[in-house]
Amino acid sequence: MNNVNWRLLTTHLVLILGMLFMSLPVWVAFATSTHSAETILREGLQLWPGAHFVETYRQVLFVEGGVMKSVLGTTMLKNSLILGIGFAIGKVIISMLAAYAIVYFRFRLASFLFWVIFMTLLLPLEVRIIPSYEVVSSLGLLDTHVGLIVPLIASATGTFFFRQFFRSVPDELLEAAKLDGATAWQFFKDILVPLSRTMIAAILIIMFVVGWNQYLWPLIMTTKEENYTLVIGIKQIYQILAEGGELPQYQKAFALTILATLPPVLVVLVFQNWFVKGLVESEK
Amino acid sequence: MASLELKNVQKTYPNGAIAVRGVDMEIDHGEFIVFVGPSGCGKSTLLRMVAGLEKITEGEILIQDKVVNDVTPADRDVAMVFQNYALYPHMTVRGNMSYGLKNRGFAKDEINKKVEDAAAMLRIGDFLDRQPNQLSGGQRQRVAMGRAIVREPKVFLFDEPLSNLDAKLRVQMRIEIKRLQRRMDVTSIYVTHDQTEAMTLADRLAVINDGRVEQMGAPMELYSNPATLFVASFIGSPQINLLPVKLSGQSLVSGDLSIDGFQDLPADKELVLGLRPDHLSLSADQAGSSNSALKIRVDIVEQHGADNVIYGELIGAGSSMDGEPVEFCVKTGQANIPDIESILDLHFDVADAMVFLKETGSRLK
Amino acid sequence: MKRVQFEHSSIPYLFVAPQIIIIVVFFLWPAAQAIHQSFLLEDAFGLSTQFVWFRNYKDTILSTAWLQAAGFTLIFSALVTFLSLGLALLLAVKANEVIRGARTYKTTLMWAYAIAPPVAGLMGNLMFNPIIGDLYKFLNAIGWDFDHKLDAFDASFVVVLIAVWKQVSVNFIFFLSGLQGIPHSVQEAATMDCRSPTRRFWTITFPLLAPTTFFLMVINITYAFFETFGIIDTTTRGAPGGATNTLVFKVFQDGFRGADLGGSSAQSVVLMLIVLALTVLQFRFIERKVHY
Predict the structure, then answer these.
(1) In this complex, do B84 and A195 lie within 8 Å of one another by their Cβ atoms?
(2) pLDDT in tens, A143-167
(3) Does domain A61-282 have CATH number 2.40.160.20?
């Protein structure tokens, strides 16, 4: 074999090892989730799917007490979807509106308000977690969808993303629209929003994943089991396993992991091109 | 009645930059006016002020005798064709053309009729349901014009509309724009930096330099009778030949050269002699009462087909305006193909020669 | 800045209002609260509070527990950043080279982006479970006396591994798009000027990737500081003995579990300063990118 072929071979080898490193844990989690608790306890993790797929997932999704004390997997799935979708849509709406004002209007407080929005980058949730909890709790929003979603959507990332995009829209479009007699609202609705379709799709995908994967905020915000998202359910199951018990239900823990992983992964895979575009563009 | 009037229009940007320094002009109904000048001269700013896209710092703009300084662009009843076309990329051709009418509250049938008429006139009827990105550059250009036409505006504005097209298409569209404008009989202002475009399109053209109108008039008037050195050198291709000189008796002197036959010029000022390439000839009999003080050493011969352009260094001359050796060019018939390095006598009629004051650029003769 | 804008007195305020209101209520107000509380001392029953200047800072920041967490966070961040960037760069360069299977490689290497840190944490936790975890057994079988419940090094190993695993895909996506952004003509010119592919990489490709790398470094440090909370919380939870406490995890622990509001707030304020520093760093980078 000559040099070029050796090089190609090592390249593929490195990539295959990388693929295994990234995918094997998830595969093992899935394979193990389809075995019975006894098998897992006896033999450890599994590399190939077993016969208990339907039973385990039915227990986790539909049976009361199957995985949590009372809440069903489907309820958690629903809560996760609400959080992911609500977060994505809310974020797109408020950040598009704000970016539109900042880019397309001349007004006195424009730069001041821009800095206020910028400030959110300096204040991630982690540094203001306890007072944020107090604010939400004093507004009576604990355990509500509003209290869960609204405080998360105001950060600057989406606004910056759309600001960047709006600035790249040729000036002449606004000028042409002005000559065509469009008002500020018409320009936004008839031209800017349709023009941003791909950008909106890209940011919706990313924000769905980000919303779905929220952990710290729902963790302190939700006190009732019926409001758990799948990601928070993970935390509970960890606790159950840690506390021990007669026969640790590892297969259910793995099943819940897979359920918490599947929707965002599917979204990323199906909309891969938009997702990559949105991710790379949003960080510019 | 003037269709459009500018009175001492000025533009100063908030950062202090002055774009337009007081422009006055009156434009009659149906006239095709071209603003021409180098980039950054303020011609686009002036156009955008007429459109209402740029605020007027001082002065007045009147459309059909009404001051429009504070009228919004949409209410001025003007339409504009942009350099990059500015088509709405997500709308079909039909959508692009009807958007302005829709916003003005026209009925659906009427919009359709207007759009289809305009499309037929521009020969884009087949593309009405396509999106801009499915069209060629020339087609997009037509859509941009169609969008302006359907509105039946009082004034048409063109902001370098052909500069994104290739050379061949540019010539073709130029003719079409001219034809269309004549047919629609709409007052038009057209901005360009291309003097050929300006010369061929304009009823009258305004040469703009540093925020001022240097001269305004019919194309041929500006060509044969430029008011300033700037106009003389901006209009005409190939460019006018320029030679810095001083008056000595009745002769203009540069280096070892002395050119006779000039009177009534200031003796103590630096002057510039201007000779158009087509006013120079290689033989005495072609140039009326001939002066033959000039000789060039041939450097390059460009063959354009119908005629040739010969470039060469002016022998014995001092230095040019930029301090380099003076180069002259001559336009001659296609039969004249002199050898490189050969020396040619140039003949011209003193009546064709122009003389400018170097300091101010103003024309003396 | 747009050449032409709308001029309206009220409409723009209407458009920014939703975001600004949320920011004031849920960002600025709580942040101000955190700063305020960091100067207060509450008695054990929360009945009275007292303004104590910088005592909370002195008590918490100078405590061995905080210093230990700070030390761990630094090492942890450095390791996670370095390892996940290195691994992602290697994979991106290789994925950019191949033609056959490129799409498959790309997809399988990036999809882990969608996995939440706590989910990754739980998965890792189960892999290292002493009863069923094959990794646990494997490490012990090859002679490493591995026990992440008791040994600080082993526990750190687990959280670093999971944190790196979770972050590789983001870095991979950015590196790959950075590589694809390098013009073909530049690569071809380099091929003519330099025979060794390795040398070509370090002298041409890597310098051209510098803006991406620098940007990713800031992103990764931020990730290691803040977003790994979910990983720590589902694996070691700071054990053994606080050896794997990150600063953020400690704020949470002290505030919610320990109910030490003043101390926790003081730690929050210190974290704000760290974010500020990271942001300044990022902005200086953006300035430099302009020159590039």
Answers:
(1) no
(2) 888 889 988 888 888 888 898 889 8
(3) no
